[in-house]
Automatic annotation (TrEMBL), chains A, B:
The keyword Transferase applies. This is N-acetylglucosamine kinase. Residues 6-283 form the ATPase BadF/BadG/BcrA/BcrD type domain. SUPFAM superfamilies: Actin-like ATPase domain. InterPro entries: ATPase_BadF, ATPase_NBD, Euk-type_GlcNAc_Kinase. Coiled coil: none annotated. Keywords: Kinase, Transferase. GO terms for molecular function: kinase activity. It comes from the Bacteria.
Length: 295, 295
């Protein structure tokens, strides 16, 4: 049986897999459902296996071949050690390496080089690599962390709308837009906030950046405060990165650069590839480590 | 049957009542269980009735007399109109007036005069009275409001501890104390935050003020940020108050003054009386309004 490698990108909404030759040349891709190892590890195992089989079929290979594969998985929620071990031990691949979804994103974005990546989506997490070692900052979630993420920005905007309603802060177009959405009843904002998940707050982030770009003073204040926390975290992560190379990923990546410090803006690079490509590369690297550089 | 009045202070942990002569002279007091009309309106009706009966017994009066009383109730959660009406219609008193717990606190603190009150406890709410009309600011709860309350201060401290752990902000004695409490495992803070109610965050507020008073730079920064939001809200409420008279109430009232602007510190007064006394005074006022000033 030919020894293929598998790169797998598993997240809360879907799971993607790519099968490749040992040198990393992708032969086929597959997709399946959610692979959230925190909320449903057994279902994650099923999704991961299905995505792998679909990739084999896409490549014209027998799906039973996944049992011989060397797989590298980047999964959300891997900071809970027990569940990672549980999933690891129940997957069908010959070799299985599991790491964070952040690591495969970093690998995709900057390849094997040193540098740093910031994932600015609903949350915010920072990774820096120096001589092959990756360090993390942030990513603690909405409640007491992720200060630069869209959820916290949206949350700050709702809060600002309430302050404007109370006459504590000045009103502006952006707070008017929010109050309008809640029919000028502050209790609607309070109730929305009570029921909302981070992603619900996050959907206000694009509105915020829109108004900030148009010069709205309250929107600018919130965008600047968010950018200040990102700048601080970037300072900390660049101190852990082996090279002045920074890549922004996530939904807010196109929106943030104008608000960041010049010292960070000046070292921004485009991502080389996506997280799935990063997973394939890491699978190839790990296989090489196991079999010797000649393989 | 003699026409007595009742003042009632109903909150989430207990309900207190005082029976008084129509002129406000208190004859007896009673206490019962929780009277939270938001979470359990039927139980609130029972607690209110029990506290009233206990006050009558304490005064040596027949508890059946509560049916003839003119009662003024200050209750938490009265911004939900339907429940207030529900409770109002099921209470046994001859006359029943229900308003917020804030209003009776204001009445107790500054009597019939114009001025303002800030309740700085787990949350933060501001009230100003001008020519008898009371206006409110804040009090929107932990999630998107109550910026000056103990819950938000404690929350900010936990967040600061995570930033210190990540090396994004400098460490200090107060962040070390928090990290020590969680055995230097940031996941402990994240898990605590996930499970916590506002009061759980609020218990870190005294620790914060302790360290701030001792000169801890991180604690000072959080205390100053909290005081800045209180100063802003006080500016807004003093603009709605008919006289430069300000009273701080709530668990943080003794801790905040040193951090506030001189323009607010200089008009601080001590509370004349507590919220229950305020409820009795409002019951007397309402009865007078109904029966004519001669009664």
């Amino acid at each position: 049986m030919t020894d293929y490698i598998l790169g797998i990108d598993g997240g809360g909404t879907s799971c993607r897999a790519a099968v490749a030759r040992p040198d990393g040349t992708v032969l086929g891709r597959g997709k399946s459902g959610a692979a959230n190892i925190l909320t449903d590890p057994n279902n994650a195992i099923i999704s991961i296996t299905e995505a792998a089989k679909a990739a084999y079929r896409d490549a014209g290979l027998d799906e039973a071949g996944i049992n011989g594969a060397s797989a590298f998985l980047g999964l959300a929620g891997t900071n809970v050690g027990d569940l990672t071990r549980y999933v690891h031990d129940r997957l069908p691949f010959q070799h299985t390496d599991i790491d964070s979804d952040g690591l495969i994103a970093l690998q995709g974005a900057i390849g094997d080089e040193d540098g740093a990546v910031a994932i600015l989506g609903t949350g915010s997490i920072y990774m820096g690599r120096k001589n092959g070692t990756v360090r993390y900052i942030g990513g603690w979630g909405f409640t007491v962390g992720d200060l630069g993420g869209g959820a916290r920005l949206g949350h700050a905007l709702l809060q600002e709308a309430l302050l404007a309603h109370d006459g504590v802060h000045a009103r502006s177009a952006v707070t008017d837009a929010v109050l309008e959405e809640f029919k000028h009843d502050p209790r609607g904002i309070v109730e929305f906030a009570r029921l909302s998940k981070p992603g619900d707050f996050g959907r206000f982030a694009p509105l915020l950046f829109d108004h900030a770009r148009q010069g709205d003073p309250q929107a600018i204040a919130i965008a600047k405060a968010g950018a200040a926390t990102v700048n601080e975290s970037l300072d900390a992560i660049m101190a852990l990165a082996g090279a002045p190379r920074l890549c922004l990923l996530g939904g807010l990546a196109p929106l943030y650069p104008d608000w960041l410090s010049e010292r960070h803006r000046s070292i921004l690079i485009e991502a080389q590839a996506d997280a799935l490509t990063g997973a394939v590369a890491l699978a190839a690297n790990r296989r090489k480590d196991r079999t010797g550089a000649a393989a």
